[in-house]
Amino acid sequence: MNDTTPHPALAATDPELAALVGAEEQLQAETLRLIPSENYVSQAVLEASGTVLQNKYSEGYPGRRYYEGQQNIDQVETLAIERAKALFGVDHANVQPYSGSPANLAVYLAFAEPGDTVMGMALPMGGHLTHGWGVSVTGKWFRGVQYGVRQDTGLIDFDQVRELALKERPKVIFCGGTALPRTIDFAAFGEIAREAGAVLVADVAHIAGLIVGGAHPSPVPHADVISTTTHKTLRGPRGAMLMSREEHAKALDKAVFPGLQGGPHNQTTAAIAVALREAAQPSFRDYAHAVVANARALAEALLARGFDLVSGGTDNHLILMDLTPKEVPGKIAAKALDRAGIVVNYNTVPYDPRKPFDPSGVRIGTPSLTSRGLGTEQMAQVADWIDRGVAAAGSGDEDALLTIRAEVADLMASFPAPGLPV
Ligand SMILES: *Cc1c(COP(=O)(O)O)cnc(C)c1O
Question: Which of 16, 33, 128, 201 lies 20 to 30 A from 104 at CA?
Fold first, then answer.
């Protein structure tokens, strides 16, 4: 290491760790990152997360803390809260949840008792673990009933949602998910939840950035609670927020602290505030729309190459490919694409005959490549690489994968990523 290293103190103290960070920087620079829940944060967000705000304990909420010395921290958290309220158009925001899963757990704590019935989309249909799936605490300590998508359309089955909700009378209904390529009809969920007397939680972890950028309808005013991570399309640090109308503010705040957590991660709160400020700029609207335009263009280019896409395409940032017709299992494809410098994740597809650890699908998305400035004119190239990579996975052609890897690195070099040393 010399004095041009981007992390001089780290390199001096812990060269082993510094080398790993450097290697990760190189990997994130050279590869085409298509995991739809990932992104690149800005240099400003990175800097905020690396500040001495880290050093401060501040259990409680602004103006109501259990520790002194909050002159600055209170203002940091208030900034984040006010920006979240303005951006999402909500009465109340809690910016303290450590991540999306604890945020959702706080929602259960606020509105349900152990053993109560809760409802969400099944994990293999595109829901999240924390929506009542069996291996999650939310499916173990609550009675999770699960809805899915229709086999013929790949779209949410609202007949099933209504029927289940009226029959099972869940305390809480979650909508939103991790592998849903289509617009979520929050109004339809809101109507069903009201009919069933349930609290509707819109978990917009994946699409929060699209919502505030005007590229996906907002769950306001249909949902009682909005849960979101801050690190996916919103382009903030790893963290989460809970938002609601005033009537649920107290219950949510009490559930997060002291119900579930101790001191908030103030460096993360600061970085959330920065990300929210960035997301309020006109350029972020352009970003959100470009993410969707890129996903649509990529979906078209994949369809043209004979790929089978769940629901036939995408309305948002995400594409779920069923590789069954290509006769390559999702995991083998994902691992081969990784060797080709294209980072994706294998994923179940609805009604997948294969096992979750060896499923039929691959999930991809455009938030990261859009953050680097790739546009619709690059999507045919991306689809071509995926097509060649999957074919090479099927035939075991390692040389073809290395050729793709070099081509990818070459293109990526002309699209420098935010926050990475050049
Ligand atoms: C990512 C995600 C979460 C969980 O977030 P973590 O920060 O990984 O705990 C919850 N719900 C949905 C819909 C998600 O996509």
Answer: 33
Query: Is ligand 1 within 6 A of the CB of residue 208?
Result: no
Given a cut of 70, the residues of the chain with pLDDT beneath it are 1-4
- CATH number of the domain at 91, please: 3.40.640.10
Q: Are residues 265 and 291 in the same domain?
A: no
Tell me the pLDDT tens digit for each residue of 294-344.
999 999 999 999 999 999 999 999 999 999 999 999 999 999 999 999 999
Closest protein CA for atom 4 of ligand 1 = 100
Q: 261 CB under 6 A from ligand 1?
A: no
CATH code of 301's domain: 3.90.1150.10
Tell whether ligand 1 has an atom less than 6 A from the beta carbon of residue 100.
Answer: yes
Query: Would the CB of 131 count as within 6 Å of ligand 1?
Result: no
Q: Is-cis flag, bond preceding 15, omega within 30?
A: no
Residue 405 is which amino acid?
R
Domain range for 370 is 285-412
Instruction: Say if 130 falls within a structural domain.
Output: yes
Domain count of the fold of the chain: 2
Q: Tell me the per-residue pLDDT of 350-376, one tens digit each, with 9 for 90 and over.
A: 999 999 899 999 999 999 999 999 999
Q: Is 57 a catalytic residue?
A: yes
Q: Given 257, 279, 301, which residue is the final one in a domain?
A: 279
Catalytic residue among 143, 238, 245, 254, which? 238
Looking at the CA of residue 102, tell me the nearest atom of ligand 1: 9
Q: Is residue 15 part of a domain?
A: no
Give me the residues paired with residue 228 across strands: 241
Structure tokens at 76: 């940091």
Last residue of a domain, one of 260, 279, 298: 279
pLDDT of residue 1: 41
- Does the beta carbon of 345 lie inside 6 Å of ligand 1? no
In this prediction, residue 6 carries a pLDDT of: 87
- pTM for this prediction: 0.97
